[in-house]
Amino acid sequence: MSSPLRELELRFGVTERTAWRKAVDGILAGADFQHKMVSQAEDCLEIAPLYTIEDALDPAGAPGAPPYLRGPRASSAPWQIVAMIDAPDRQAARGQVDVALRAGAEALKLRFDRSVRDGVCDGGAADGLLIDTRDQLDALLAPVDLGKTALLLDAGANALPVVAALIDVAEGRGIDPAQLRLSSGQDPLGALARDGRLATSLDDAFAQSAELCSATSEFSAITNVSCCTSAYRDAGANAANELAYGIATAIEYLRQLTAAGLGLDHAASQVAFCLSVSSDIFVEIAKLRAARLLWANAVRACGGNDDSQRMRLHTQTARRYRTKRDSWNNMLRATGEVFAAAAGGAESIAVTSFTLEQGIHDPLADRVACTTQQVLREESHLHRVVDPAGGSWFIERLTLDLAQHAWQKVQAIERAGGMIHQLQAGTVQAELAGRRTAQQSAAARGKLPMVGATHFALLDETTAKAPPQAVIRATVGAPPTETAGDNRFTAGKHASFSALAAASALAEPATIAAIEPALITADFDELRDRADAHLAAHGHRPALALIAVGSLAELQPRIDFARTTLAAGGIELVGETPHADAAQALASARERTQAGGYLICASDATYAELLPSLLDKIDAARPIAIAGPAVTATSRPIHALNLRCDRIAVLQALQQQLGVEASR
Fold this sequence. Notes:
Layout: H1 4-11, H2 17-28, H3 33-37, E1 39-41, E2 45-47, E3 80-85, H4 90-102, E4 107-111, H5 114-118, H6 134-140, E5 150-154, H7 159-172, E6 182-186, H8 188-195, H9 202-215, E7 222-228, H10 230-233, H11 239-259, H12 264-269, E8 271-277, H13 281-301, E9 313-317, H14 329-343, E10 348-350, H15 363-379, H16 393-415, H17 419-424, H18 427-444, H19 488-491, H20 497-503, H21 522-538, E11 543-548, H22 552-567, E12 572-574, H23 582-590, E13 597-601, H24 604-617, E14 624-627, E15 639-641, H25 647-657
Parallel strand pairs: 3-4, 3-10, 4-5, 5-6, 6-7, 7-8, 8-9, 9-10, 11-12, 11-13, 13-14, 14-15
Antiparallel strand pairs: 1-2
Helix pairs in contact: 4-15, 6-7, 11-13, 11-16, 13-14, 13-16, 14-15, 21-25
């Protein structure tokens, strides 16, 4: 018997795929279908021009039932709005808490400094909360109702003393610890990947995870182990690899917890995931759906029951897809990312501050991070529908393709010895370095646009600013009164977190080559920094004067493209008006005395005749660029600005010729 969807197709006379393809091939007239009609996403996914019922997932399950692809719950429910608390300055961190509560945050994510995460104080810049004792934690959370506001911790592999102190704080306020809604975030492999070092050996870090699970076993609302993929995503991992690294890490945690004596179902219930979301909405929706499918399959293969197959899924916006320049655009990126996370079924969402890449902890940015979610949830009602992407043949196929790519990668990791071996051998680092290089190249060629940085750059931007804050770098505190061989959970209630991390090392600390994060716009940021230094030193920006020959209607698109492309490298294009006569255009350009070179703009048909006469009249020491196709048959080099050019190479060469000093 045919399905209702198939009956609808027959009733409305839907064209079969084969007939459609035959018609398209006729239009293409011999051109390659794959090249003309199929595009790529995330380095590994094909985006077809047409999707039909044949692309629907079967079976995909129902919401709230294994394999949980359609969502963790059978009915709609709002996601949890999470605020990031990560300012090193304690007063600023307390301000973040106050802003978050006023903005309606239902959970706080506490990201601790490296001195807490691995017990190291190397004198470097603080990169998170400098909260190191039970009393400091109590002071930070003074306005927080611990019985109602959920907490997510990012303490690397050193969550045990923080959790112990937090439970002691709750008991000191007369709150039953059973009321705490807490994700402890114990993530040894994620911390090792991000920081390159743990305070102790991996075996001891895993033992601490088991201790934490045992110490909190009576508290059903606490999960203790986290698989956070942000280190991989921010270093260039595509969606499939991010999923694979996360699932492979979680499988390793299951091994370690069950080896320590936990039952499989109990161990699986202790694992929570934190995935990054970026601006590619369709891919991110599919990724979150695929993540639940993969985890359910992995736990089922290990013998887990239906409930233990359910993924506990937190998401946060990916820092790699942020810009330092024109950072206001980061608010718009966050809006799309929250939409993707919500439509993909995330149970909680955290938005990074739009000023974070500038090193600014700004109250306005912290409030916007929460209110963006409030608007999308309360006004746009994104949470009202279970699995809103379900039934979209495109999303269904994308989900399946992502799951298949990721599962193949998981199997390859397992065959190669597991996630621990892959990190220690440097395989993951090398793979991500290759992807990062490829993405930087794509950005340089305009294939990975970042508005405000690589495209439509704004030279005279107004950036968000905040007053400088004095940050006292944390120092490793006094050793705990109890040794590592005693009850570390009890010791954690009163000891310095960083001191306990340092003192709890039972073996040589685990070290690997850290996975290096980088913004997609890193190369462009470096060029802008050089240009800013030039402006500060000389009183003017590096600049090219416009020589435009033709009509404004004809040349305006090329002028605008050249202007924004040059601005991406901090180079100003001075002059706006085209001239009908080349001599007039050159004379007008020469009046722009602050310009060190020229940009020639005309129609393609004009260049062959125009260029030789102009080049004869321009000082050979001045750089020349052209808005249009590359030109080789000339007496001197000309830098071509067009859709296919390597913008980084062109901008670097122009900066050098304009006297802009390279970064030291």
